[in-house]
Design brief:
2 copies of one chain form a homodimer.
Chain A (H helix, E strand, L loop, with lengths): L4 H15 L4 H18 L3 E4 L1 E2 L6 E6 L2 E2 L3 E2 L7 H12 L8 H22 L5 H19 L4 E6 L7 E10 L6 E4 L1 E2 L7 H14 L4 E3 L2 E2 L3 E3 L5 E4 L3 H10 L6 E3 L4 H4 L10 E3 L3 H8 L4
Parallel strand pairs in A: 2-13, 8-10, 9-11, 11-14, 14-15
Antiparallel strand pairs in A: 1-3, 3-4, 3-5, 6-7, 7-8, 12-13
Helix pairs in contact in A: 1-2, 2-3, 2-4, 3-4, 4-5, 5-9
Chain lengths: 290, 290
């Protein structure tokens, strides 16, 4: 599989993202990953899954004995020209005429086609899809905010050795301006508390609220291999406790948001979960630079 | 592998632990798991590994094409009569004549022989070794403190639904008395921040310091499958930051403690890392009930 075209393009993306997370050139490499993934998935067979999630339908791809993760039928609308239009809009000075709903579908389709391809090409590889998803979200956030992300911050030193603290993606808009703290994960599962714990570190080290915490997640579903049933695993009550006792996150964005989390806003919680496409329209308000 | 003797005994242990985490009966089931594991490992082949950890040597078992995790040569001294003596000592009113060093070896040998067996019997199963290790540590802590662990606490309710918060092991010595918060993991890896985050939750909900945080870990080594080199992955600088900015843990115990963490005490940190055997002798001091 070393000469697999998708993995080769992904490798270009890795190099390109290090140079610049956003911009035309990076967009082109993402385009290549996308088109190679779609071409590969054309060879795979679609298989319906039994959705146990109200209002959502799922299928998976299968190929040479392997099955991909569950794919949300309503969100998966691979449409290459639409993706290119979005890229162009981002390039042409940030005027976006695509609807929020449409943007979410474009990004979901792109993300999930790569992840599903890797599920079929490799065995038990969670890292490659996770890394690609991080590059993809970094691409959009960096393009929208105009800054390259960092993945560490200097640790103010009192007694210990001077050191850097590895972090999730940090987008620093400049001195005196907003700093976004954006962990990117394909799902949170039983590790969701880490999202708040990393925010707490930044709050503790640099001052509460200096960094705007806004994790981006792909989905929270799980497929039973035998019964082919898809469930969403959500812990809304625990999330409320994390938001109260560990740190305040400004947003949690999803490409395929679970209804249980979207409902949290209705409960007067400071925790607001939204589709990721909302970021394109509210980021400057969040940054206080509108 | 369904009729595997080790897994069958492990299943008995699961049931017995739910009834009572400690005591003679539970000790006997652990004995059975231990002897079955040792019997199985006798059929496996020992393979030397290249230690990149100063002062430690490692080997692994291999069996029908699979390799076990790395085993610390100095700590692995399977000695069934010694284990039975320790059990008897615990049973006979808590007078322990076994040295700390010896206790650590007894528990390490027991834990690692089960974990290594599962590595060889199953593929990529991290959960079964993790669960066994939790039962084993619960057994000792429960026996020493005389209380059955809980794995959830009620969440004081203001506006939300009344709910329980799932927790790591909690040993509540009674009203007005100490409560130990003991996460048990075979390694912390990139998830170590969760140890502090869970402590922070308890501090936030019930008051700082009400729960004595003392995670127990097995080891922190990692074997490169190709080169057979064993390294320890430690993040002492980050741990100091967690201890400063997230919550205070009273102890972190290890069966195979990395030197990088043992050194933390010398740096005047409130974070004290020790071999787990120390718990047997200092728990009542920690609990303030000496």
């Amino acid at each position: 599989m070393k000469d697999n075209k998708i993995l080769r393009e992904f490798d270009y993306l890795r190099k390109q993202t290090k140079k610049q997370a956003y911009g035309d050139d990076t967009g082109k490499v993402i385009s290549n990953v996308y088109s190679e993934s779609l071409e590969f998935l054309n060879k795979a067979i679609k298989q319906n899954l039994k959705s146990k999630v109200e209002g959502k339908e799922f299928f998976s791809y299968s190929y040479s004995g392997k099955s991909s993760r569950a794919i949300n039928v309503q969100l998966f609308k691979p449409d290459f020209p639409q993706w290119e239009l979005l890229c162009k809009a981002l390039n042409d000075g940030h005027v976006i005429n695509t609807s929020k709903d449409q943007i979410n579908k474009i990004i979901y389709s792109l993300a999930i086609s790569f992840c599903a391809s890797i599920d079929l090409i490799k065995s038990g590889d969670q890292k490659t899809p996770g890394t690609f998803f991080e590059y993809l979200i970094a691409f959009f956030v960096a393009w929208r905010t105009g800054v390259q992300p960092q993945n560490h911050i200097p640790l103010p030193n009192y007694e210990g050795k001077p050191t850097n603290l590895p972090t999730d993606l940090i987008f620093d808009l400049g001195t005196g301006k907003a700093k976004f703290h954006i962990p990117v994960k394909t799902s949170s599962r039983e590790r969701s508390i880490m999202l708040w714990a990393h925010q707490r570190l930044l709050d503790g080290i640099y001052g509460t609220g200096r960094f705007i915490g806004a994790p981006v997640l792909l989905a929270e579903n799980k497929t039973n291999k035998t019964s082919k049933e898809v469930v969403e695993i959500c812990l809304p009550e625990q999330w409320l406790v994390y938001q109260m006792h560990i740190a305040k996150l400004a947003r949690i964005y999803y490409l395929d948001p679970p209804q249980a989390y979207l409902n949290l806003s209705d409960r007067g919680s400071s925790l607001v979960v939204k589709p990721f496409s909302e970021f394109f329209f509210e980021w400057s308000e969040l940054a206080g630079t509108k």
